[in-house]
Write a structure and sequence with these properties.
The complex is a heterodimer of chains A (about 325) and B (about 400).
Chain A (H helix, E strand, L loop, with lengths): L2 E3 L5 E3 H19 L1 H4 L2 H27 L6 H18 L4 H23 L5 H20 L9 E2 L7 H23 L2 H11 L1 H6 L4 H27 L1 E2 L1 H4 L2 H14 L6 H15 L4 H18 L3 H20 L1
Antiparallel strand pairs in A: 1-2, 3-4
Chain B lengths: L1 H16 L8 E7 L6 H20 L3 E3 L2 E3 L1 E7 L4 H13 L5 E3 L4 H14 L3 E3 L4 H5 L7 E5 L2 H15 L6 E7 L2 H18 L2 E8 L7 H9 L4 E6 L1 H13 L6 E6 L4 H7 L6 E5 L10 H12 L6 H19 L4 H9 L2 E4 L2 E4 L5 E3 L3 E6 L2 E6 L14
Parallel strand pairs in B: 1-4, 1-5, 5-6, 6-7, 7-15, 8-9, 8-10, 10-11, 11-12
Antiparallel strand pairs in B: 2-3, 12-16, 13-14, 16-17
Helix pairs in contact in B: 2-12, 3-4, 6-7, 9-10, 12-13
The chains are: A mainly alpha (about 325), B alpha/beta (about 400).
């Protein structure tokens, strides 16, 4: 039976991969069918969860799998939003193609910035991505051609809620496909080699620049597409919201809370962040404080997040049972 | 494991899906900037909205189908983020079952929520969104705005200075943020008006809404000898600009700071430095309209803080909406929307009548900070004091 690789280089069978893929397909089908059994409110929350999850998955691909800790999520999100609204307003391209173009724009942004950013490592790379996001935000605020600080309005009616949910589900499917390919192939080993020690990986023949560029471009494409979907839902975008640091912080929080580098980490993290934001919507200070405390606690006591913590507890209990029997 | 997971999931599901809007009440919703850069505006608006609702309830509620129902207002914080504003309005409609909505503040936040209300066909009445910024978005069907017209606001200082007959060198410097209203007032209208009034624009500069360093453009205005300085900026920047003007040793004879010099926080932050600053306003407690003085007195009594004109437009927006619900006698969107459009009343901000673009224009006055308080100095008919000239 053919073997592939996952976290820590453990081999897993093709059957395991198929089971995972099957589970993901069921989850996607459940999301797509949500408007049939959920009301408007639950559907809206699910939409927010899906957009957040795409961002978190893409961020996890960069930071968790490859060690590229970015604070530039908002640059791709904002770019995707502007590309989508601009193309829908000024072209007759179908929505699906416009979303693809938005994603490509995200990848192009990453490829353009990579020669400069990839010279930086660790904290310097993180600061570089933050600078990129801020620079783009300021450019868009001052670019009258793109609506300046007033932003752009979609000159047609956005899709209805159920259609938006299906689009977001489709984007999540594409995201999971990318992750399955990355996680279930030789690329998985290359990513972790670069993450764990880039210099050693290079000595062993890994072309680290290419690996990092591929991941950066893929993650930026997914983030830009998520920004496009969000802009489509809003129908009105402006640079402060679309290029706001909030997108970067949200993606980071979801992954840190769920579990950095963990396959299920973004799902759990996105659920915690979206649900806590909704439950504490009337207490914004409490929500900020809770998120901050949770991040600190996770980084200090559970660096593998809730998923890692759960796995550790589960393993310990099984061990105890084994010893007892 | 399953025994724990199922009840937890059920609890979460119940929390999300519990019907919060009861059939024996009227729910209206509002998304407001209660935190973030515009939190000072949001606090005033909240008070205005809640006061109007409290008055409706103390009068026994609103009669719907022969039964008087209490009104409940649900307010959510949009954190000064248009994305959150849109999400809040969605939630107010879908979860809280709000039959009508009240707006946020500034064009970006108001328009983001208004587009959602329009899409869901839920009537909304808002203030805090100037004419061009509001009507430029689209032809609205369910959203109504009562606020000032940028053209009136832009011309007010020109008229105030001209009619006061004060002597300046007619050299003017214009500094404005590049927000929607800043671009219109500072970028388009002020240069046009300067030409019309025979003033020479020696400096015209724009800056991002979150900028904090203005020394170079202030130095530019000073070196060009501008006696008149026109600024359009939000409050935090307005405070910074005034301080940096003083630090630079620049003493313009006329200093206008639109938008940012209006809230009480401006005067509190600057003390004596605020004196002499002119700002356009659409309401003042001395306005000759019914209930104006009482409204401000009630605010100051309840909060023990100085008020703002934002308590007035928010209060009136809520009054207009509640009156429309009462006139409609129904919780249906179409009857309420139709009743809003028929509004014709003189309220604390003056006459309120909506035009074909769903906009009700509020009259503008010029107020000036004098000894820690704002005094109406133009037009003469509404003036409560004389123009302080030159700026101390």
């Amino acid at each position: 039976m053919a073997a592939t690789f996952t976290e820590h280089g453990r081999a897993t069978t093709r059957r395991g991969l198929l089971l995972t893929a099957g589970g993901l397909v069921v989850a996607l089908a459940a999301c797509a069918a949500a408007p049939l059994y959920f009301g408007d409110y639950e559907t809206q929350i699910l939409f927010r969860f899906l957009v957040g999850l795409v961002l978190a998955e893409a961020w996890n691909l960069m930071a968790g799998y490859t060690g590229l800790v970015s604070l530039g999520t908002s640059s791709a999100v904002g770019l995707g939003g502007y590309v989508l609204i601009g193309l829908l307003n000024h072209s007759a391209l179908p929505l699906g193609l416009v979303l693809v173009v938005a994603a490509v724009a995200g990848a192009v942004l990453a490829a353009t910035a990579a020669p400069g950013l990839m010279r930086l490592r660790g904290l310097y790379f993180t600061v570089g991505t933050l600078a990129l996001a801020e620079a783009l935000r300021l450019v868009m605020i001052n670019a009258e051609r793109f609506g300046g600080a007033s932003g752009l309005f979609l000159d047609r009616e956005p899709p209805v809620q159920s259609e938006l949910l299906w689009i977001a589900t489709g984007l999540l499917a594409a995201t999971w496909l990318v992750l399955l390919l990355a996680d279930g192939s030789r690329l998985s080993v290359l990513l972790r080699a670069v993450r764990d020690d880039e210099d050693v990986a290079a000595q062993l023949g890994v072309r680290s620049y290419r690996v990092k560029l591929a991941v950066f471009a893929a993650a930026s494409a997914l983030m830009a597409a998520a920004g496009g979907v969000q802009a489509l839902k809003l129908g009105a975008i402006e640079p402060y919201g679309m290029f706001g640091l909030r997108w970067s912080i949200d993606a980071l929080s979801m992954v840190i809370i769920g579990g950095l580098g963990q396959r299920a980490g973004p799902v759990v993290g996105a659920a915690v962040v979206v649900i806590s934001a909704e439950l504490l919507a009337d207490y914004p200070e409490a929500h900020l404080a809770l998120t901050g405390v949770l991040l600190i606690v996770m980084m200090r006591f559970a660096p593998r997040g809730l998923v890692g913590l759960g796995a550790d507890i589960w393993a310990r209990r099984r061990l105890m049972r084994g010893v007892a029997s | 494991m399953l025994r724990r997971t199922v009840p937890t999931a059920a609890l979460l599901f119940a929390l999300f899906t519990a019907p919060v809007g009861l059939a024996d009440e009227i729910v209206i919703g509002a998304s407001l900037p209660l935190s973030g850069a515009l939190a000072s505006f949001g606090a005033f608006q909240r008070w205005g909205y809640e006061r109007a609702v409290a008055e409706a309830n103390s009068a026994g509620g609103i009669a719907i189908g022969g039964k008087r129902l209490p009104v409940r207002i649900v307010i959510r914080d949009d954190k000064t983020d248009a994305n959150v504003s849109a999400g809040n309005v969605e939630t107010l409609i879908s979860r809280e079952k709000a039959v009508a909505l009240l707006g946020s503040c500034t064009p970006a936040l108001v328009n983001a929520g208004a587009l959602v209300a329009e899409r869901h066909r839920v009537p909304m009445v808002t203030g805090c969104d100037p004419r061009r910024a509001f009507t430029g978005v689209r032809q609205w069907k369910y959203v109504w705005d009562l606020f000032f017209d940028e053209a009136d606001l832009a011309e007010a200082p020109f008229k105030a200075i001209t009619e006061a007959g004060v002597a300046t060198n007619k050299r003017v410097a214009i500094l404005h943020d590049n927000g929607p209203d800043g671009q219109v007032v500072g970028g388009q209208l002020w240069p046009e008006l300067a030409k019309k009034y025979g003033w020479e624009v020696v400096v015209s500069a724009s800056f991002p809404v979150d900028n904090s360093q203005f020394t170079s453009i202030i130095a530019d205005a000073k070196s060009n000898g501008a006696d008149i300085l026109l600024v359009d900026a939000i409050t935090p920047q307005a405070v910074s600009i005034r301080k940096q003007i003083a630090t630079a040793g620049y003493r313009p004879k006329v200093l206008v700071i639109e938008k940012g010099a209006e809230p009480a926080q401006f005067g509190t932050a600057l003390g004596a430095l605020a004196d002499g600053v002119l700002v356009g306003g659409y309401w003042d407690p001395s306005s000759p309209y019914p209930g104006a003085k009482e409204l401000m007195a009630a605010y100051e009594r309840e909060t023990r803080q100085p008020g703002s004109q934002h308590i007035a437009d928010s209060y009136v927006a809520a009054k207009v909406l509640l009156a429309a619900i009462a006139a409609a006698g129904s919780l249906g969107a179409e009857p309420i929307d139709s009743a809003i459009g028929k509004t014709d009343a003189t309220l604390v901000v003056g006459p309120v009548r909506f035009d074909a673009q769903h906009f009700a224009r509020l009259p503008i006055v010029s107020v000036q900070w004098q000894k820690g308080k704002t005094v109406v100095v133009w037009p003469a008919a509404a003036a409560g004091g004389k123009l302080l000239f030159p700026v101390p």
